[in-house]
Write a structure and sequence with these properties.
By secondary structure, the chain is of the alpha/beta class. The protein has eleven helices and seven strands.
Length: 347
């Protein structure tokens, strides 16, 4: 199979459809999973060798079994305090005031009892794990809500078969709008999640890794931070955008076969070079590069109705040495000089 490697960031929740969309083009995919967290359920049945690799943080960052006890206590507290879920620090990234938020006192109590196997304080590692575990819980809850809504949309009306009027037999759930998980609804701030992800997995990221996310808000957020990092704000960074065949409706084994049969080694290598190197050259025509990338990725043709994935690749150049005005947040240095990718379904 011709390699076009990528790293999933900063997720640990991955649906079957999302995995299929990624593997339609990118192989192998490396997924970083915190300690005490199971790998994505979609991997439970096993996949053909060489498609996905699951990696854990370095052993010295393992918070031990006390993390599970802490999380159980944390969620228990949340269940008994529904009006103050304690997830505010995930939404804002700010530390709550000790005298106002009981969860802050809980976390301080938990930290005092944490130490890593070498005897050093493991407060930062523990916090990184806590953030990613709570984010994982929220993502799973949102995914479950979406799955329930989709089942309701597909359910038959109670009047089905009892009336000849198609409108009367129409399911009342058919036109339900989808959930809006945008920031204005209280969804978590991306910054602490990305900072925690880097805190645990920075040493595992290799120079040639493409960082890919099914959720554009992470890439959009880093792009906005990059634009605002200098004064006056700079123009948007280089972007490649193109579509490729969405094979997620096929079994994973079939996706692997199609890639092996259709995506030639030369095409995969050139596409990887475009995404990794050419995307970051300011003197190149981004439109021409996008068109060339689309040609290389159009390796599967079964008819005009074939679904497509829209890929957007953003290259974040290093920031100038002269800093702009002091700001609360700047892009983490580990994301600079890299290509960040998000995927969307073509509508």
């Amino acid at each position: 199979m011709q390699p076009l490697p990528a790293v999933l960031f900063p997720h640990s929740v991955l649906s079957r459809a999302q995995l299929g969309k990624i593997l339609s083009l990118f192989v192998p995919l490396r997924i970083f999973v915190p300690w005490q967290m199971p790998p994505p359920g979609v991997l439970a049945r096993g996949l053909p060798a060489g498609l996905v690799e699951v990696l854990r943080p370095p052993a010295d960052l393992d918070p031990g079994t006390d993390l599970r006890k802490a999380l159980e206590g944390y969620f228990g507290w949340v269940q008994t305090h529904p009006d103050n879920s304690g997830l505010g620090f995930l939404k804002t990234g700010a530390e709550p005031d000790q005298g106002q938020d009981p969860v802050w006192m809980i976390r301080q109590h938990l930290r005092r009892g944490e130490a890593d196997p070498s005897g050093r304080e493991a407060g930062e590692s523990f916090r990184h794990h806590l953030v990613l575990h709570l984010e994982h819980e929220l993502e799973e809850q949102m995914d479950e809500a979406d799955r329930i809504l989709n089942r309701l949309r597909g359910s038959k009306s109670l009047l089905d078969g009892l009336t000849e009027d198609p409108e009367e037999a129409r399911s009342i759930f058919k036109d339900l709008p989808g959930f809006d998980w945008g920031p204005e609804t209280g969804r978590i701030d991306p910054y602490p999640v990305m900072a925690a992800w880097l805190g645990l997995f920075e040493s595992l990221i290799e120079p040639g890794d493409l960082l890919i996310s099914p959720d554009r808000r992470y890439v959009d957020f880093l792009t906005e931070l990059w634009i605002e990092a200098t004064d006056p704000p700079r123009t948007p960074p280089p972007v490649l955008r193109f579509s490729y065949p969405d094979l997620s409706g096929s079994p994973i084994e079939r996706i692997a076969e199609i890639r092996r049969e259709k995506l030639a080694g030369e095409a995969a290598r050139e596409l990887y070079t475009l995404l990794l190197e050419q995307a970051g050259r300011p003197d190149t025509d981004q439109g021409s590069l996008s068109r060339r990338a689309a040609e290389l990725a159009a390796f599967h043709h079964e008819g005009p109705l074939e679904d497509k994935v829209i890929l957007t690749a953003v290259f974040l150049p290093p920031l100038p040495e002269t800093p702009g005005p002091s700001r609360l947040k700047t892009p983490p240095a580990e994301f600079l000089g890299r290509t960040l990718i998000f995927l969307e379904h073509e509508r």
